[in-house]
Amino acid sequence: MPPAVRFGVNYTPSEGWFHHWLDFDLDSVRADLDSIAALGLDHIRVFPLWPYFQPNRTLIRERAVSDLVRLTDAAAERGLDVNVDGLQGHLSSFDFLPAWTRTWHRRNLFTDPDVLDGQAAYLRTLAAALADRPNFLGMTLGNEVNQFSADPHPDPDRATRDEIDRWLARMLAACEEGAPGRLHLHAEYDATWYQDDQPFTPAQAARHGTLTAVHSWVFNGTAQRHGRASVPAEHHAAYLVELSKAWAEDPHRPVWLQEVGAPAPLVPPEHAAAFTAATVANALDCPDLWGITWWCSHDVSRELADFPELEYGLGLLTNDRKPKDSARVLERAAQEPPRTPQPRTTALIVPADPAARSLCAPGGAVFDAYFRLVADGVRPTTVLDTRATDHDHLTARGITEVVTPDQVLPTPQGDTRS
């Protein structure tokens, strides 16, 4: 029997959103977890808000850490494993950074020695607090922290690729020190794969940490350009999974689809279930997929102000914990017997130079060529131009054919329905 792909959800508390850490209510959390477990999912990803947990560089609040442990234990009682994001960081358009890194204490998140010491201590503390919990999967450094490092952030913490490389190595080491042998990783939004001047690179994503994480959102131009029911929209998550493999040194490195959702109005609510079904089915056709973790568990309450409109309705469950049709789709997928996808034998060449990443973005030559192949019935993967003639590498991945983007006809416009 092949190993089962993990099915889970990013946990957004139904009461108080992530501000629930300020007045943590275990009974409310338990009710949320009951509604998640009832869908047959096996894990959650949780988000401590960094400034609530470490309001001063040398103060990590014991009560907050204790609440995180209590949440993890409540999840265990319901058969749910837990991955913990540390440096929150950025969530649903809001930045949550401690005061000791901003304004009068403005210090670079990725290069300042004191900030690095504080971050490492915080990550190590969270990991150590959970190290003896059997259902603790491990740490993710933070949620899409690369958005702090470059444009379009309004106040970026600039860093070079080498500085980011050192930051990743040190923070992952801190997690390992706190909880040896667990699944520790980092996760960025898709600028890592698509933005030429991003200091967080595809190579770092595919080589640092236990596995590679990808976050798939079709509001990045994919749905706008091609439509909600197009080949590029329904296969975007699978594309990122396969794109990440070009940079991996391990030919069978696991890839975690750690965030994916159905954002309105590009995916209207009445079409969310169909989008979910297509996205999940296509991702499951990717070899070496570790898991699918949907964004998110519960809707954001309309009592909370200033969220982008799409954020309010992304939950699998309503704010009063009722499952939507998309939740039933994920529930059914989680109940299917595991299967092992066949190798993807056709590889599309992508540039190893990170300054050419925009070729892989929506509208780029690699992106368009990949989806033309998919539309023609091919199951493509990707390979770096520097490895395109490496027989041992290709053989290890089961690749028998290599094509360049200019060998593939232009992509048709696809479904343009709104």
TrEMBL record:
Native organism taxonomy: Bacteria, Bacillati, Actinomycetota, Actinomycetes, Kitasatosporales
Gene source species: Streptomyces coerulescens
Molecular-function GO terms, alphabetical: hydrolase activity
Basic and acidic residues composition bias: residue spans: 325-334
Record region (Disordered): 325-345
InterPro entries, per database record: GH
Protein name according to UniProt: Glycosyl hydrolase
Keyword Disulfide bond: no
Keyword Transcription belongs to the record: no
Domain of life: Bacteria
Keywords: Hydrolase
